[in-house]
Amino acid sequence: xxxxxxxxxxxxxxxxxxxxxxxxxxxxxxxxxxxxxxxxxxxxxxxxxxxxxxxxxxxxxxxxxxxxxxxxxxxxxxxxxxxxxxxxxxxxxxxxxxxxxxxxxxxxxxxxxxxxxxxxxxxxxxxxxxxxxxxxxxxxxxxxxxxxxxxxxxxxxxxxxxxxxxxxxxxxxxxxxxxxxxxxxxxxxxxxxxxxxxxxxxxxxxxxxxxxxxxxxxxxxxxxxxxxxxxxxxxxxxxxxxxxxxxxxxxxxxxxxxxxxxxxxxxxxxxxxx
Length: 274
Prior knowledge:
The chain is mostly helical. It has helices at 2-16, 34-45, 51-58, 64-71, 80-86, 89-102, 104-114, 118-129, 140-149, 154-170, 192-198, 213-226, 242-248, 252-266, and strands at residues 138-139, 178-179.
């Protein structure tokens, strides 16, 4: 797992053509310095991206809504039962079983390709966007630029911003793409760096578009496989594939909920003993 992660980081650095942590643009804790930061940062990356992409970056707006969401995250401080109730885990499991049946051919194809069964994918899909029904309405480029400028997690979101600019350059995303408050996009809410590393074409149309269920679910399976998923192994806590689920989200309650709801969708009773 460690060597695989290092290979992915190296690959990303090669794709972006820039080492992380090398930017001189000064971060800030409010909107006052955002315009100056944009000018400085754009100057540092000019030549690495198409002129239209740089212009799109210069056209971003400071997102107070994104900062508010970043400062107000409380769900992950809940107990497991509280978190599952808040996220509607029982409803996700119930609807997830019908979604599994309705999309049986798609999930069979994904499992053959990546070795990941439907349950955890559907659990993620349901909890992230209620099966694609709400993917967010925040401008993605502005959200990620705001968080790259913000001093709280500058380095992390500078990586995300560089990935986003690369995706805009490639036409995978655009300056007008919209998603969740932290820059997550698509039906399973990938951050730009994850789109770049794990995004795949799931429906065979030659494009990567995570707003479609096939591409989003196939990309999620690819993410899990890249994080060590072993075909046929269990995914409850203590089993081999739980480590891949841990890679999806750092919150223990989220990880456990994916495993529990996934098992309920897949028809396994193992979740009841964990």
